[in-house]
Design a protein that fits this description.
The protein has helices spanning about 5-25, 25-30, 50-65, 125-130, and strands spanning about 35-40, 50, 65-80, 85-95, 100-110, 115-125. The protein is α+β, with helices and mostly antiparallel strands. It has a six-stranded mixed sheet with strand order 2-1-6-5-4-3.
Length: about 140
């Protein structure tokens, strides 16, 4: 019988790995946490960001040192199943030469065929929606 991992542990590990690889600028390791089927919604001026867009953006930000730190707080499990977990959290991206970018986000992690949990969907929450979800920005 396959080992079942608690959704909280999966999300906490994914968030920790995401923050660490982004903060350290390790592009390949960071992108390995993202599914090639990913969709990112809610970014101002963009209808949808896919894997290729995210890959290029992260590569640019990591190589020029734009991002100095990433961290997450107040993670909540919204729903979970055997191969899918929906969560919400507050993401803080500290920029080297500017203010911090703080957003409530909703994400979906799926266990892919190789056994790794990867982000398949992320949506930036409006300030009002984040407040209704008890995510303090």
């Amino acid at each position: 019988m396959p080992r079942v991992t608690e959704p909280v542990a999966v999300v906490e590990k994914w968030l920790s790995d995401s923050a660490k690889t982004a903060t350290e600028g390790r592009h390949a390791a960071f992108m390995d946490l993202i599914s090639n089927k990913v969709s990112l919604l809610g970014v101002p001026e963009f209808e949808l960001i896919n894997y290729d867009d995210w890959y290029i953006q992260a590569k640019s930000e990591f190589s020029d040192g734009t991002v100095s730190e990433v961290h997450y707080a107040s993670a909540q499990i919204v729903a979970s199943g055997l191969i899918s977990i929906i969560f919400r959290t507050v993401e803080t991206v500290v920029l080297r030469d500017g203010p911090s970018d703080i957003n409530g986000i909703e994400g979906v992690l799926q266990k892919e065929e190789d056994g790794k949990w990867r982000l398949t969907h992320q949506r930036l929450l409006s300030r009002d929606e984040a407040g209704r979800c008890n995510l303090l920005l």
